[in-house]
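ESCALATION

Customer reports they have been waiting on this structure for their group meeting. Please prioritize. Original submission:
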Amino acid sequence: MEDKKLGTLTVGAGCFWCIEAIFQQLDGVEKVTSGYSGGLVPGVPTYREVSSGRTGHAEAIQVSFNPEIVSYKDLLFIFMTSHDPTTHNAQGADFGSQYRSVIFYYTDEQKEIAMETVKQIAPYFNEPITTEISPAQTFHPAEDYHQDYYNKNSSAGYCKAIIEPKLAKLRKMHGEKLKLKN
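Update from on-call: job pushed to the front of the queue and completed.
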């Protein structure tokens, strides 16, 4: 059996639990890891350190995907429509640079696609897009209790109030991109 060449997408959009749950639903997505990236402090950050806002890291997810099934551009479009990319350093009730909207690119091609996607989607928003487009830095996986959070805690209040409406929006806007359920 031939190994498939997977692509990597790393993005931040507020709390990583929300975007992790969204990207886990997408056909062609092989793995989603919640973590931290884009920080200025050396070493491996902890949730407590990142949530203080003093490390410069963003809560982010790293996605391994099969580009033969879903493109980087499609993933960015879904990313940009699954959160509010017009709020600087904030998503909902979460405020601080750790909750910023950010696309971390690994190649010049990814950077170009990110810039073009932001440009194409900008007219659909009433405010300017503040999504940061930055070179990828070391991605640090978050602690185990953050991984697969929605699937392990779907009855929790946060999941019901915050994540489920985002998943409903995903189904409505991008239903054709979802994994088929058996």
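Sent to customer with the following note: The CA atoms of residues 36 and 140 lie 5 Å apart.
Escalation resolved.
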